[in-house]
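Hello forum,

I keep getting stuck at the same step: I have a sequence, I want structure tokens, and every attempt I make locally crashes halfway through. Rather than fight my setup again tonight, could one of you with a working pipeline run this one for me? It's a single chain of 226 residues.
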Amino acid sequence: MERIYVIEDDENIRNLLKIALEGFGYEAEAFETAEEGLARIQELPPDLAIFDWMLPGMDGITAIKKIRQTENVRNLPIIVLTAKEKELDKVVGLDCGADDYMVKPFGILELSARIRSLLRRSGRQEEETVRLSFYGIEVDKKTREVSCDGRRVELTLKEYELLVYLMEHQSRVVTRDELLNQIWGYSYDGETRTLDMHIRTLRQKLGEDGGSCIKTVRGVGYRLVR
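Reply #2:
Ran it on my machine without issues. Output:
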């Protein structure tokens, strides 16, 4: 049974999410503060964590950054919840290391779908060690390590999956719909700007040379170019 931690200071939302997750068949634990959640994550790492952005004391964004800097849990799938709905806020949330971003109020069924998608992808095991390479960008699919011109690059789960998919299909243009369906794992009906924001942060992390390899094909999608 997969274990999910909810870190949310609103008692009503916290209890609702815990009950809903248990109803979906997950083992759920809920915490009021980021400090409590981080301590439990270190003690017993979950399969996925849900962080509210605005928490008393340490906020959710700071907590997620700490997780991404901690070796044994840095690949933990994370969903951030927030009432902030501006595009810049979403970019900040995704850039800090969150794998998905949901604006309150949200539907429980949509949350469940996103959880299933993240768990399915984070739990997928590679059958063999496979290295992907594209003009200085190197990906080890066994260890999920990424480097660009010899520099290690830390990516979130979604950024990593986007890069791998583009590298595996580097001979052609990959459409926006294809990326949304393949990476998000279901018929995505949310804002398509989510994809643009992930591509933007991926380019930034790859740096000037690596990021410029991801070309936007206007009205169609993306492809890798030399």
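The chain is about 40% helix and 20% strand. If your local run keeps crashing, start a new thread with the error log.
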